[in-house]
Amino acid sequence: TQALSDAVGLGYLDIVRVLVAANTDVALGREIGLSLFYSVIYNRKRLPVCKFLLETMVQRAKLPIQPPDETIYSFLINALNHEHLKSCCDRDGGLRAAIRASLAAALTEKKKVLIEENNLENLQAELAGVQAIQLQVRLLQGTGGSIKKTEKKQSMVKIEKCMVDLQEKINSAMPEMRLIEAAHLGNLDYVQSLVGKGVNINCQDELGRTALYRAARAGHQAVVAFLLEHDAVFDDLPEQRGGAPLYIAAQQGHAPIVDMLIAKKANIEQVCRGARALYIAAQQGHEPVVASLLSAGADVNAATQSDNAFVPLYVATFQNHVPVVQMLVDAGADVCVSVVVDPLVDTRITPFDKAKPEVARILNDALDKKIRSFIPGLSGREDLKTGDYSALIDYFNSKHTYFFQSAKLKDAMRSLLALALKERVEALIHAGDQEVLHLELEGLQTIASKMSLLQGKGGTLKLFDEKTAMKEIKGLIERLRDVLGLNVVPMVPVVPVVPPPRNITKIEQAAVSALQTVGLLAPPPAPPVVNVGAISVNNLKKSEPDAEMFTL
After folding, report:
1. CA–CA distance, 75 with 70 (Å, rounded to integer)
2. What 3-state DSSP class applies to 507?
3. What pLDDT, in 10s, does the model give residues 474-495?
4. Of 9, 74, 335, 516, which has the highest C-beta tally within 10 A?
5. Strand extents, DSSP E, 30-138
6. 286, 312, 308, 283: which is closest to 299 by C-alpha?
7. Residue range 362-384, pLDDT digits in tens
8. What is the pTM of this model?
9. CA torsion sign, 285 to 289 to 292 to 297?
10. Could you say which DSSP state residue 307 is in?
């Protein structure tokens, strides 16, 4: 290794050739890569050594690859990416041109050998390596030197030609790959020809994609129809990078192809990349696709298989796809559903928190309809009893967590509830049924006692704030009490209060006796003496009242 580095540094090409030929170990590629920029650093004019090292690295690059995730040209790419070599190339246009030309020539010669060998694994490895080199060569830009643009273009064209030839050889070596590529390009005649020759219609490429998948993604309806007629599998395929044809067609917005697959009974609930077809169509705003999936019975509230648990309504609201939101709401989407924005602390938000004005109106209308479905007389249901709000309270309880974390949902629920109850009470008062009014009063009192369930962090309510909403409901209760006469105070007759007679004390009796003795107070009259035997009503003389009265 040291001898090779010294020979490269001194520019002794013949000695370099002998040393490289003496060591056929593939691992020598790393040392050659290091020597490559050494030769440029020591003497940038010794281009023959540089060209020889490049050609040697290209020739010796082969399988197996260690580690597997690299390419066969990893050593070469690392050398080209070295900061010293890039600095030299930036200053010297001739060096850049020499590197490009040497690589193009070496890759072209190796391509010819591999095509003649016709080893599919080696061809695929070479194609991946050439693609990596092409990207790295494009990065060898600079301002110095006098390189011609035509020379640069010619070198890049040669490298790209290697890639095209290798890909064509790979395709020709694998009829299945030709079928998948023809389906992707929409070449119906070629697809029919290959299927007619017995090529496996359900073959997959290295990413797990089938001919049906590629055709569905590209939107080639005729090819998709032909493949479906010949029993191409559209469900239960390995989920690598592709997924199911229905999912990818929904993502791309190809409604006719979605309809074809639905007609073939494709699984509309199949999960691909953690989501279903309806979710991805709602996210992209593809209205016809959403309509087809909903008509086929897709679960409108199905969440993604992730920590966030997103649902179609939330993602459509977030993207402000107004028509899609309306379709999802009409199909029964839960407007009070919450999604997790921070799984660590379980922070949740609802569609109300992300809705813009037009979408917010749709959500408010849906929530109002939901609330009215629990209120007798406003829902149109005959099974609801007057004054029975147990179902509504149960609904509040089920959404209590969402109310606490979503201020806008809480505000909307309070205000819409107050408006619906007001309409209900006014209708009952107009009807005038006393028994019904008594039952309604009991129901409202229950609702008022449960309003604490609608408390939360706050928010910006447009119709009623928290105090006003509560005041409205309490006002309805007082209104009913007034109508029923429960607030009238009954009239009670006023009875004068007469103090009880007071007993005269001994001191008071002594004072009266003293006054009578000195003549200041007349003594009490003596009772008349009456002959009981001779008394009659006519001759009974009435006693006259004492003329002198003294009040003690």
Report:
1. 10
2. helix
3. 888 888 888 877 766 555 565 6
4. 335
5. none
6. 312
7. 998 998 888 888 887 776 665 56
8. 0.58
9. negative
10. S
